[in-house]
Structure to design on (642 residues):
């Protein structure tokens, strides 16, 4: 609880699937009636029990604000990862939070499950005892899988009770719960030639696949072969024939979940319950047609497909515009779209630092995020250029969605009575923030929208960060290419390119220029006596004195050795500039504590920057003037010594 608001976290995946969506709608309504708000932390893909598979979007479960929750609900069969569930349970236990498991079982938790064995038995008995099938076949899941083996046991039990001999080698195929392996297994059955009277499938996906392949091979369903499924997926109402199945009623699961949440919050001990699936006969076994909510389902699919192409086009434009933006503010401005309505975007502030590669810097990725909100579709004006605040928030480093940067806004949104949906933002397998969707309805098309938008925004921001860093590297490389490493002045190539560009500008046409040459006195003596490092130090001081004494618009250059020069554009007092150079060096000598004095000889020439301007000639003339000064200094030293 936070600020008097009771919060429940729901951990699931694919909120846009009809079963999960129906569960969310029912659960939220029941929780809302008792003053709870639902925060949904969701994957957009399943782990499928492949526990070691890289799936960085599971970072969303690291965002759960345990310290403010009243209970946690885990849809185990939707996430399909024991490692993730165990981690969430451990974190909940450390905060003394009750955990309710929907469709799974973990010690110490209140666990809900479907009585799959009893539900599947209803299907098998209907085929064997009602339709009097004597030569059945079972399309099982993965060989050795717990759920698959239990359904094989049910199949064998019903056959035994009806005096039908069971032979696993000839009566069981493995379609692995999925379409492609099921096609292979079905084709093998067709090729065998000894077609059974019925093919009882371990789930609906395989039943749909088996039915399609039998019809394609010339068999009639159910006249030649009965086909049945199990699970009650909505897709079975769009097949021909419609599939006989047993439905795992998601509404009953939601009702039972809410009851266990209320009991757990009251401090009652954990409780386990089983929900019996509902048998539903249909055309594929020869029974009358049964269609579940046909108009609602047809409208939902029609709406989804009608908008798909347009939505993809809009998201592609948003993503590309974000990636090509020059600043964070410009990038955020590209987010305004009907696709991003009802959303917040929160990222690690450090991902916008130009001088780091956020997605390869291990230290940053392993540290806590410095969350900052960069977009709220209800208030887009707050996050544009000039108003977007990416300043450091020292002391406000939090890993969860209740970070200070967003906490107040999230609590405000919970008052609307609809669930908040959280997706992690991931790029290059690196999480860098999250999105919060706050739809003020239960439209499944909106829930479906979360998948495409999250992916598009992840790629948009991630691409912007990468391209911006590449620009930084290119700029640094360009600086290295165009500038002298010792002095920081332009090198020969950089100077020539810059002068070439300036000569194209109208404001530089026919302006007076002064080319001023400065040469370090006594470089050989410094190198021979004190070493080349000291010689480089002296060259740097002469270059520094020159660049600080000429106007900012000047081009200051080191062509090599100890000679540096500047081109000053416009009228100037060259003698005053030379005096400033000498004064700067005198000030340095007074504080440097070096065993030698740094001095320079300067010469200059004045010209007009017209079409006949010859930079080589100008440098030569300035160089000659500089050597006149140097020779005068030499003669003065000799005169003093003589």
């Amino acid at each position: 609880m936070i600020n008097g608001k009771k919060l429940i976290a729901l951990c699931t995946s694919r909120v846009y699937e009809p079963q999960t969506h129906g569960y969310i709608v029912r659960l939220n309504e029941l929780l809302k009636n008792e003053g709870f708000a639902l925060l949904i932390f969701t994957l957009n893909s399943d782990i499928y029990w492949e526990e070691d598979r890289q799936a960085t979007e599971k970072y969303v479960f690291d965002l759960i604000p345990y310290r403010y929750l009243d209970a946690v609900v885990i849809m185990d069969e939707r996430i399909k990862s024991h490692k993730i569930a165990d981690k969430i349970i451990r974190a909940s236990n450390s905060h003394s939070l009750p955990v309710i498991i929907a469709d799974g079982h973990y010690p110490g938790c209140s666990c809900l499950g479907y009585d799959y064995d009893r539900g599947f038995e209803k299907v098998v008995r209907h085929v064997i005892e009602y339709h009097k099938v004597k030569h059945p076949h079972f399309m099982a899941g993965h060989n050795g899988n717990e759920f698959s083996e239990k359904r094989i046991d049910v199949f064998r039990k019903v056959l035994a009770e009806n005096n039908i001999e069971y032979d696993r080698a000839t009566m069981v195929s493995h379609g692995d719960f999925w379409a492609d392996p099921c096609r292979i297994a079905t084709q093998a059955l067709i090729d065998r030639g000894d077609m059974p009277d019925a093919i009882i499938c371990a789930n609906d996906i395989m039943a749909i696949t088996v039915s399609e392949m039998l019809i394609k091979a010339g068999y009639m369903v159910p006249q030649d072969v009965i086909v049945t499924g199990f699970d009650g997926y909505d897709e079975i109402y769009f097949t021909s024939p419609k599939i006989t199945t047993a439905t795992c009623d998601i509404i009953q699961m939601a009702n039972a979940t809410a009851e266990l949440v209320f009991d757990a919050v009251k401090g009652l001990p954990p409780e386990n319950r089983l929900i019996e699936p509902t048998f539903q006969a249909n055309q594929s076994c020869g029974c009358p047609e049964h269609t579940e909510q046909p108009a609602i389902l047809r409208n939902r699919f029609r709406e989804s497909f009608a908008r798909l192409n347009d939505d993809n086009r809009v998201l592609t434009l948003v993503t590309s515009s974000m990636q090509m933006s020059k600043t964070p503010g410009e990038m955020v401005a590209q987010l305004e779209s009907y696709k991003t309505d009802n959303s917040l975007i929160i990222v690690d502030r450090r991902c916008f630092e130009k001088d780091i590669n956020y997605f390869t810097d291990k230290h940053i990725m392993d540290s806590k995020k410095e969350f900052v909100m960069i977009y709220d579709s209800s208030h887009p004006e707050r996050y544009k250029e000039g108003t977007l605040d990416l300043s450091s928030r020292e002391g406000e480093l939090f890993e969860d969605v209740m970070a200070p940067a967003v906490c107040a806004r999230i609590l405000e949104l919970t008052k609307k009575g609809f669930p908040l949906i959280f997706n992690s933002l991931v790029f290059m397998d690196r999480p860098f923030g999250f999105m919060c969707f706050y739809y003020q309805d239960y439209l499944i098309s909106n829930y479906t929208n979360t998948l495409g938008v999250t992916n598009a925004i992840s790629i948009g921001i991630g691409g912007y960060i990468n391209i911006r860093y590449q620009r930084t590297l290119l700029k640094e490389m360009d600086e290295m290419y165009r500038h002298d490493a010792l002095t920081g002045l332009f090198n020969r190539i950089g100077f020539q390119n810059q002068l070439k560009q300036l000569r194209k500008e109208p404001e530089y046409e026919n302006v007076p220029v002064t080319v001023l040459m400065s040469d370090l006195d006594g470089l050989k003596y410094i190198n021979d006596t004190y070493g080349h490092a000291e010689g480089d130090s002296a060259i740097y001081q002469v270059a520094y004195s020159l660049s600080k004494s000429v106007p900012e618009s000047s081009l200051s250059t080191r062509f090599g050795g100890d000679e540096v020069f500047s081109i000053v554009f416009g009228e100037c007092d060259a003698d005053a500039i030379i005096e400033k150079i000498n004064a700067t060096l005198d000030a340095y000598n007074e504080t440097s504590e070096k065993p030698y004095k740094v001095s320079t000889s300067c010469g200059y020439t004045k010209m007009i920057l017209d079409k006949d301007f010859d930079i080589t000639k100008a440098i030569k003339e300035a160089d000659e003037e500089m050597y006149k000064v140097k020779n005068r200094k030499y003669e003065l030293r000799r005169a003093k010594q003589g």
Notes: The first helix runs from residue 18 to 33.
